[in-house]
Amino acid sequence: MRGYMVFIILSCIFLYYVLHCILWRENISWLRVIEMKRSPVLSCSSKPAFESLLSFRGIYPFMCTNDLKMIATLHESEKLGLPYGVKKSVHHFYLALSKLQSCELFPESDKVPCKKCIVVGNGAVLKNKTLGKQIDSYDVIIRINDGPVRGHEEDVGTRTTFRIFYPESVFTNPADNDPNSVAILTVFKSHDLKWLWELLAGITPEVNHFWKKPALNLIYKPEKIRILDPIITRIAAFNMLHFPTTFPKKENEYHNITAEQIFLKNIIEKNFVINLTKD
Q1: Is position 120 within any domain?
Q2: Is 39 a domain residue?
Q3: What are phi and psi of 206, to 5 degrees?
Q4: Does residue 81 lie in a domain region?
């Protein structure tokens, strides 16, 4: 479980960077090269504080069926297995993606070019901080797994733009569904993709390949589900935390708390991000 959690957190952090990268760059040349059929995103003229980290080209957060092979080749994802690539899992990616209705970043009606983004964790540090209104003031609110909102609105806010999850961590109670939020599957194994495809196809998924029983129903509609490109996880792990290039069989070995704390401390000290919970 710890191994999954660190990847979810890393994915959130790097997704935060990618969002700013896409919004800020005025000349997104890679979009023309690979001819993605995606809605154009208005550019933000304000350069982010962490401009030096935005040197990654050809990155779009969500996978699309029509350019899966092209993107996999561009990122060399076909050379690596999950959770860093698509090797041996391309068929499962196609199956899952065939049931989704969109891979867009924002709806076409969204014309705000310069967005403020926030990642909201699930830790008890948020309790009694009454940051709810401040969190809701951000344009893009990224949440993790089944971190609760209902019943904690005063501390964590009410809105969710993106919620990153895996099969064992997704909400199953319809009362927790925000119809305006997008649920993003972070894939660790091919069975995660098979699980998503089976649920969307009305098939009861097998549960033997999960560390705990996965959700057996989805509260999100297909048009509100995305699949995170493994390149997001890979760059966060390799380039930011300098993790090993292979995923250990024991996930806990991959959870380098010291490296994570140093990284977070560094980006906060450089004002790349702001820690709202700091007293």
Answers
A1: yes
A2: yes
A3: -75, 145
A4: yes
Domain range enclosing 175 = 2-269
Alpha helices in 87-152 (DSSP H): 90-98, 132-136
Compute CA distances 142 → 52, 85, 145, 154, whole Å.
Answer: 22, 23, 10, 17
Q: Return the half-sphere exposure (C-beta side, CA atoms, 13 A cut-off) of residue 98.
A: 10
* Distance in angstroms (rounded) separating the CA atoms of residues 42 and 245: 35
Q: Copy the structure tokens of residue 160.
A: 């969710």
Strand ranges across the sheet with 225-227? 117-120, 140-144, 162-165, 182-185, 225-227
CA 229/CA 101 separation, integer angstroms:
16
3 state SS of 182: strand
Q: Bridge partners of 164?
A: 144, 184
Query: What count of other Cβ atoms lies within 10 Å of the Cβ of residue 172?
Result: 13
CATH number for the domain including 261? 3.90.1480
Return the beta strands (E) in the chain as ranges: 117-120, 140-144, 162-165, 182-185, 225-227
Q: Is 119 helix (H, G, I), strand (E, B) or coil?
A: strand
Look-up: residue for tokens 């196609």?
94
Report yes or no: 141 and 184 within 8 Å, Cβ to Cβ.
no
Residues paired with residue 62 on neighbouring β-strands, in sequence order: 228
Tally of structural domains, the chain: 1
64 found inside a domain: yes
Q: What is the pLDDT of residues 16-71, one digit of tens each?
A: 766 766 665 544 333 333 344 466 666 677 776 766 665 666 678 899 998 899 88
pTM above 0.85, yes or no: yes
